Structure prediction request, 254 residues.
Amino acid sequence: MSVFSPSCLAGRRILVTGASSGIGRATAKLLSECGAQLTLNGRDQERLQVTLQMLDGEGHALAPATLADADGAADWLNSLATTHGAFDGIFHAAGVALIRPVRMTRQAHLDEIFGASLMAGFGIARAGAQKGVMNPESSIVYMSSVAGSRGESGMTAYSASKSGIDGMVRSFACELAPRRIRVNSIAAGAVKTEMVTQVAGQLGTASLGNYESHHLLGFGRATDVAHAAAFLLSPAAVWITGTTMVVDGGYMVR
Prediction:
């Protein structure tokens, strides 16, 4: 059950990328419970349909696409705004997680990790800077990670992509402040999603237990991050921009 008012986002049009699973899906569901009208993005249309069936309210739309570079993401978002109207919020949750030692990391791996998160995120920022894409008093929220600030073996490329997200957020917030458009990110710890399950398979039981023990409150749930995203997308966060909100169950203090 949501702790937010069912009308706190009424009348707001919000785009959620990565909405076919995990944090993106949980956030889409919560935003719909708050009255938002959503446009859902993901690579798999069938899984997006599953998310759509979970939503409260009507008037939601699907926008399946693979976001992998800045130019493609910018053109795609401009087209969406032309078709559906300007957005009041964007939650960019799309991304790829990969654990791989530096010695085994190739350009293709970097392209995959940076493409979905940082490069597509930059394209979304570029489109958002254009008139007619974002309404005044709107909000953009990017999924980041504690990996952007803390080191973990095998996560060099992933960490670099999330550090890039946080840096981009700070400068993009400066550019859009004159239009009262807020830009923030969420640095999440490990959350029990399909993505983390895949990573767990690469770590092994012992390493996974050690990783979880670094979270003072244990691994989180997708809804824990969804509530933070809903807050940052809502008018309650009207004076917050250019910051990275840490939602990590205490991971960063260890």
